[in-house]
Write a sequence for this structure.
């Protein structure tokens, strides 16, 4: 399955508290993804929390958009990516 | 015998049966390798329900060319219905299928209908499975099919059928080998604890049983070894019975056995008590197909041929239509050329009448292997038939090859009429294979030859085909010219099918040239086809009406034809037209800015494995274009594939939309050289075809790419307005047409407030790259306070529903079902599903009713709101 980097903007900042509520939000996202066979691997969040870069495995960009809609998450850009490991050539 | 390790499977089958009894029919797939115990499971389950369900049983056989609707013949005999009569009288397939459905719908007790070994099914049976699979939910029947999943490759017909079944009504069971513990347990119970039994047999229940019964000291290496060592202990007379039965892929009826070798009863009993054969009603059969194959393979070729001969003679003595496929099978195996030539063509016609076209084509092929001794006319006839059956089953190369042969024979015989008609077919087959040049050459040749003869139906059809080719290539005037000749001649000769065909071609060509009379002709063709039940022509008429109205941007009219056409072709399983229209519905959604529904529809088309290039091109184009505008990954690959396929057809109507997406992609990336390169060639083509809209569109892209280009004078449309700098008029024109993205593009050329309006539209559409581009422009010109998403509409209501979700919620509150909501909002039911689940999630509701009550109580929806007046 292809891997994608999904860029999202949160003009008012991303707010996921580090507690049970936050855990529940993340769990909800994961559950909503299942329907379209989308897997959220992990995300990087910018310091000001206005931008996230999320790695996903998904069958297509449309699948990512459908689950984003279910999760009410914005999508700026979806790029297909491959892994490059700095120690790959050793 | 008890069945080990199948408890869970039985439990689930029980649960399904109680749902079925409540009127929710289900399709049950039981798969696994040969010998895994599929039949045992199904038999046991059916046995347990003889008292509270009706059990119907049918099986496919391992014939070289399977019997058309073989399992249905078996099942028909077990019902009180008129199915047997319908089958024997070769009633139209549609009425046979309808009768089957009727039978399954109207049982008082639930029905368990079993079809075994469908990996060997003929094409008509596969069609029946598809037909039933799509409708089983409205019956109180459980349709159980078994198949060997390891013998069903990626392009096997069964896989295509199973892949397209509605997920909700299907249950799948894949039977796994026995565990080591179970195998050891069995061995111990037999008093034969063999150490490597599990390792050698891999836990295959049939192999385990045979190995334990073989009484050899060790474990036989293969299933065959096990079976043969068991068979070796039989007396010579019993072995003779065993061998005869082994060359019969179906069950061996008693009359057949008696006629062929009249064995004494002792021999038969010995085979049965040795556990090799078993009785099945009035027939005898191997305990398992694997055993039959093992014995058959152990017989040397000359003896096998003489056994087939015995079976053939017995079948011929019996003389029944239902045995045709079996007669051909044994005649070919016995190398009896006279019998093959006599019966294969009859079997082929019978198969074709039941729409088992693949089997029909194979029967003709079998006959042609022995056709040297036939008169040339007869041989040519066989080739023509084979070509037609291949053509119907997407075997383009086979169709071409056979047609070449028949053409050559007619030529040598000097039969100009047949030669002309075969040339017309060569044209059609070549077009089908995407070879336009050849298609045109053959078409011209056909007309020339047939015109030199007295007027004939063949000539009328050649005219109409010529018109079709021209119409497909946007040569509209020429198409009307040739098609009108066809209409006149066909009307004169009373050739209704040709008339329907020609009206369609001329209508499409005229309508495309902007003449409303064309639509009237298309409607006429549609009504005539409906009245004469010419289903394929109905599909084609709907398709042309639908895509033409989309192309002319008459969306209100288009959605009417699309919905009616997709419904008709779904009901009649005309998959090509259904997929093609779905691709055009995607286009229609896309142009009007509903990219979600567009991507859903296009994705639906592309999910099908067996989709012809003609339907694949628009689907790839729309999905690629959606990705370009959203800035999503992999747009380039889709569009490259679409372009290659489109170029192969050579047709402007397919090439232009792909080019448009690719040009836009290049422009968004700032690659102006590429914009010019891509746009130039299509502009030339559009000029040659005198297509004003496309000329304006690609002139516009040349202009955007920086070329000094004149505004096309004849066209005052939005592209021309934009090129002349009149952006407000252009935006207004786009709005009128209903293309929001283009409207925003025009506004983006305007003043600051227009640009801000454009930004809002882009954000609403989710047009990432265009948004980004416009933001940069706004920043560069020093505009302040540029709004940054999220989309304003999402923030409007506290639950965070999008405007589309609000629309859906309102209709849910009105009590509409998903299908109705889909029809109302002109989006696909699948998209409605997505919206509904998103709404439930956001409102934290578990059911629709709960969501509605939350929406009303929280004031999200005003209960006393104004409702639109009914239309």
């Amino acid at each position: 399955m292809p891997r994608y980097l999904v860029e999202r903007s949160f003009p008012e900042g991303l707010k996921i508290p580090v507690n049970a509520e936050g855990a529940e939000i993340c769990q909800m996202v994961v559950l909503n993804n299942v329907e379209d066979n989308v897997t959220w691997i992990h995300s990087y969040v910018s310091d000001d929390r206005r931008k996230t870069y999320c790695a996903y495995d998904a069958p297509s960009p449309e699948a990512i958009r459908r689950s984003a809609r279910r999760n009410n998450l914005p999508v700026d850009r979806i790029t297909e990516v491959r892994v490059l490991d700095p120690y790959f050539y050793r | 015998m008890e069945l080990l390790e199948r408890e869970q499977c039985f439990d689930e089958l029980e649960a399904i049966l109680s749902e079925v009894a409540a009127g929710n029919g289900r399709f049950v797939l039981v798969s696994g390798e040969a010998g895994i115990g599929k039949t045992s499971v199904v038999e046991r389950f059916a046995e347990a329900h003889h008292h509270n369900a009706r059990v119907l049983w049918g099986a496919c056989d391992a014939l070289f060319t399977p019997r058309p609707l073989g399992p249905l013949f078996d099942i028909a005999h077990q019902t009180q219905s008129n199915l047997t009569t319908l089958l024997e009288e070769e009633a139209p397939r549609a009425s046979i299928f309808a009768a089957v459905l009727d039978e399954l719908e109207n049982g008082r007790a639930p029905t368990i209908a079993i079809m075994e070994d469908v990996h060997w099914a003929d094409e008509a049976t596969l069609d029946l499975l598809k037909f039933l699979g799509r409708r089983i939910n409205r019956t109180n029947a459980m349709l159980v099919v078994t198949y060997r999943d390891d013998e069903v490759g990626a392009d096997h017909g069964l896989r295509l059928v199973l892949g397209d079944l509605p997920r909700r009504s299907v249950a799948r069971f894949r039977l796994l080998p026995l565990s080591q513990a179970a195998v050891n347990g069995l061995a111990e119970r037999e008093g034969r604890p063999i150490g490597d039994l599990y390792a050698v047999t891999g836990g295959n229940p049939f192999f385990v049983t045979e190995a334990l019964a073989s009484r050899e000291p060790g474990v036989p290496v293969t299933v065959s070894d096990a079976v043969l060592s068991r068979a070796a202990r039989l007396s010579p007379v019993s072995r003779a019975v065993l061998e005869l039965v082994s060359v019969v892929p179906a069950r061996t009826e008693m009359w057949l056995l008696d006629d062929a070798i009249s064995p004494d009863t002792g021999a038969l009993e010995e085979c049965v008590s040795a556990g090799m054969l078993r009785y099945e009603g009035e027939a005898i059969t191997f305990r398992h197909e694997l055993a039959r194959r093992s014995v058959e393979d152990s017989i040397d070729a000359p003896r096998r041929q003489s056994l087939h001969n015995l079976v053939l003679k017995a079948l011929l003595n019996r003389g029944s239509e239902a045995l045709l496929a079996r007669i051909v099978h044994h005649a070919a195996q016995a190398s009896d050329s006279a019998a093959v030539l006599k019966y294969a063509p009859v079997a082929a016609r019978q198969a074709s009448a039941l729409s088992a076209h693949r089997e029909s084509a194979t029967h003709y092929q079998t006959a042609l292997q022995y056709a040297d001794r036939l008169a040339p006319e007869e041989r040519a006839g066989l080739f023509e038939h084979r070509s037609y059956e291949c053509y119907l089953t997407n075997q383009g190369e086979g169709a071409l090859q056979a047609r070449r042969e028949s053409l050559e024979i007619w030529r040598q015989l000097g039969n100009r009429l047949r030669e002309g008609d075969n040339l017309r077919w060569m044209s059609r087959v070549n077009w089908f294979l995407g070879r336009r040049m050849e298609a045109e050459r053959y078409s011209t040749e056909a007309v020339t030859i047939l015109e030199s003869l007295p007027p004939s139906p063949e000539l009328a059809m050649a005219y109409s085909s010529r018109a079709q080719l021209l119409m497909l290539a946007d040569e509209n005037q020429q198409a009307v010219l040739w098609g009108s000749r066809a209409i006149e001649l066909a009307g004169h000769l009373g050739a209704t099918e040709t008339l329907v065909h020609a009206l369609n071609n001329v209508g499409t060509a005229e309508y495309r040239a902007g003449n409303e009379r064309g639509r009237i002709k298309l409607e006429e063709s549609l009504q005539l086809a409906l009245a004469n039940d010419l289903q394929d022509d109905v599909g084609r008429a709907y398709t042309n009406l639908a895509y033409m109205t989309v192309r002319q941007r008459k969306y209100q009219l288009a959605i009417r034809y699309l919905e009616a056409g997709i419904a008709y072709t779904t009901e009649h399983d005309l998959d090509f037209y259904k997929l093609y229209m779905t691709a055009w519905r995607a286009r229609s959604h896309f142009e009007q800015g509903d990219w979600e529904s567009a991507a859903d529809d296009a994705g639906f088309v592309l999910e099908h494995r067996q989709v012809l290039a003609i339907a694949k091109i628009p689907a790839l184009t729309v999905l690629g274009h959606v990705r370009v505008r959203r800035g999503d990954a992999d747009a380039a690959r889709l569009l490259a594939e679409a372009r290659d396929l489109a170029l192969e057809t050579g047709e402007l109507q397919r090439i232009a939309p792909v080019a448009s997406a690719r040009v836009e992609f290049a422009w968004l990336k700032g690659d102006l050289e590429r914009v010019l390169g891509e746009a130039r060639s299509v502009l030339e083509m559009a000029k040659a075809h005198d297509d004003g809209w496309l000329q304006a569109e690609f002139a516009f892209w040349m202009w955007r790419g920086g070329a000094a280009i004149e505004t096309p004078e004849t066209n005052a449309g939005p592209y021309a307005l934009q090129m002349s700098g009149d952006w407000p008029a252009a935006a207004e024109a786009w709005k009128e047409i209903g293309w929001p993205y283009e409207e925003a593009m025009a506004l983006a050329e305007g003043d600051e407030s227009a640009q801000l309006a454009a930004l809002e539209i882009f954000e609403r559409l989710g047009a990432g790259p265009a948004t980004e581009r416009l933001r940069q422009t706004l920043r560069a010109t020093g505009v302040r306070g540029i709004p940054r998403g999220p989309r304003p509409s999402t923030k409007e209501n506290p639950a965070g529903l999008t405007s589309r979700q609000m629309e859906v919620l309102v209709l849910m509150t009105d009590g509409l079902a998903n299908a109705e909501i889909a029809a109302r909002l002109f989006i696909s039911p699948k998209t409605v599903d997505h919206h509904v689940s998103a709404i439930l999630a956001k409102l934290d509701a578990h059911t629709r009713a709960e969501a509605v009550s939350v929406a009303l109580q929280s004031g999200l929806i005003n209960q006393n709101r104004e409702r639109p007046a009914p239309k």
